[in-house]
Design a protein that fits this description.
Blueprint lengths: L5 H7 L6 E4 L2 E4 L2 E2 H8 L3 E5 H18 L4 E6 L6 H9 L3 E5 H10 L7 E4 L5 H10 L2 E4 L2 H13 L6 E5 L26 H13 L4 E5 L12 H15 L6 E3 L18 H19 L5 E4 L3 H4 L3 E13 L2 E6 L8 H5 L6 E2 L9 E6 L8 E8 L7 E4 L20 E6 L2 E6 L4 H6 L3
Parallel strand pairs: 4-19, 5-6, 5-12, 6-7, 7-8, 8-9, 9-10, 10-11, 11-12, 14-16
Antiparallel strand pairs: 1-2, 2-3, 4-13, 13-14, 13-18, 15-18, 16-17, 19-20
Helix pairs in contact: 3-10, 4-5, 5-6, 8-9, 9-10
Bound molecules: pyridoxal-5'-phosphate (PLP).
């Protein structure tokens, strides 16, 4: 029977490109979600390669269309990084933003070459910096004491000094749904003030350090590029004061949003975002007589979030007052985003889509925390114990922030294409938990 329910078709557009309804069940890149869940177990994360590729194409064609200078796309590894994703970045010639030694190790093992690795971190350890010296092309310097550590390291590695960019605290945040996803506001822990940047630039000059860029990042999951404009202006004023010319680099970070819930549709347009940034940089450089910088954009979520889905199996269902609790085998250990900042999600049943809405449900996990919630009060068909549900837009900041709370074994993650399933991350076992114990 064809599926026509509005609630369902509307939600379907949140999902990865290759998600289809066939015979009243969901298929991703031609694979039945139910068969994947039976074969690999739940909770299960599935990434659709076509959706990943499409997002890169959108960014690159917008950069080509609106920015006449050189430009590069950097994948923010903090959104989700494993060897297969690092290898995928290299099929598109992306840079990889790595926070510290761990992510540098994964990116390198996945085949990202030195010149493509860029290192971030608000309080980098000496080990992080040493690893950056050995494996990275660029370090984004967060603060003055980090710069002094870098200066000390140059004496041991005179031939391997990565390029340095300075991270600016612009003092203006983008609008996100929670304060904890903002990073550019004046009292943020990230980056340096204008005065500190000038001090850092002078330090680099005096010590012959290879400074050639400015970076800022104002927050994550925003859909209005307006607050980027004063930050771009400030960065260009500073670039002028430092005296950047010829080949210099500007990165206004990442953070472009994604629709997680049907009432946030349509998805924010990548083209509008890139166009807004590119026009502001071009105008700002022209009015200051500055050479156009090499422009870098550093998205994570808008490249990878929509590509991923999380499949959970329903266990018990409880009625408590007005609330219907649907308890699943996934929750805050694989997706802490509700617990951290009240993130919103939507959901579909994997099979039997042609059902009417039965009422509102709240979906929660098996962990011993009342905040172990995935979704609150979402209209859904009446669900049965044992059936599968799937959460869209699960590709970013789930597995990369997952934990072993309550002895949770972190889930399997697959990459799928038509006719192909690749295991990117294996499900952890009790032996894995014990391997680092004592
Ligand atoms: C420095 C930096 N760059 C890029 C990103 C990527 O943000 P998003 O995944 O929202 O695009 C982040 C995320 O916090 C970040 O801190």
């Amino acid at each position: 029977m064809p599926v026509t329910h509005f609630w369902m078709t509307n939600r379907l557009s949140l999902f990865s490109e290759s998600m289809r309804v066939r015979a009243d069940s969901l298929f991703i890149a031609g694979h039945a979600l139910a068969s994947l869940a039976d074969g690999y177990g739940t909770p299960l994360y599935i990434y659709d390669r076509a959706t990943l590729d499409l997002a890169v194409t959108e960014y690159k064609s917008a950069l080509r269309a609106y920015y006449p200078g050189e430009s590069h796309l950097t994948y923010a590894g903090k959104a989700f990084l494993c060897k297969a994703i690092a290898a995928w970045t290299q099929t598109h010639d992306l840079h990889v933003d790595c926070t510290g030694e761990g992510e540098i190790g994964i990116a390198g093992a996945g085949g990202a070459p030195r010149e493509k690795i860029l290192v971030h971190g608000v309080n980098k350890s000496t080990a992080d910096l040493k690893s950056a010296f050995e494996h990275a092309g660029t370090i984004v310097v967060d603060n003055l004491s980090e710069l002094q550590k870098i200066q000390l390291l140059t004496t041991n590695h005179p031939s391997l000094i990565p390029n340095l960019w300075l991270r600016l605290l612009p003092g203006v945040a983008v609008t996100t749904h929670h304060a904890h996803t903002q990073t550019g506001q004046h009292d943020s822990k990230f980056g340096m003030t204008r005065e500190e940047i000038i001090e850092a630039a002078n330090f680099c000059k005096e010590n012959h350090l290879p400074l050639n860029g400015i970076h800022f990042h104002q927050g994550s999951n925003f859909r209005d590029p307006e607050p980027l404009l004063p930050a771009i202006d400030l960065a260009l004023d500073i670039a002028k004061e430092i005296g950047f010319s010829g080949t210099w680099h500007l990165c206004p970070g990442g953070g472009w949003g994604a629709a997680y819930h049907e009432d946030e549709l349509p998805n924010p347009s990548i083209e509008n975002y890139v166009r807004g940034v590119a026009e502001a940089v071009i105008e700002g450089c022209n009015s200051r007589g500055l050479d156009l910088p090499v422009l870098h954009l550093e998205p994570g979520r808008s490249l990878v979030a929509r590509a991923g889905v999380a499949v959970y199996r329903v266990g018990a269902i409880k009625q408590r007052g007005d609330k219907t609790w649907v308890l699943t085998d996934g929750g805050m250990a694989d997706n802490p985003r509700f617990a951290l900042y009240g993130a919103r999600y939507s959901c579909l049943p994997v099979e039997g889509l042609n059902r009417e809405i039965g009422g509102k449900v709240s979906i929660a996990g098996p962990y011993c925390e009342s905040g172990d919630i995935v979704i609150e009060d979402l209209p859904m068909p009446e669900l049965k114990e044992g059936e599968l549900i799937v959460i869209p837009v699960a590709g970013a900041y789930h597995l990369s922030m997952s934990s072993n709370y309550n002895g949770a074994r972190r889930p399997e993650a697959l990459m799928v294409e038509e006719g192909k399933v690749e295991v990117m991350l294996k499900r952890e076992t009790v032996e894995d938990l014990l391997a680092r114990d004592g």
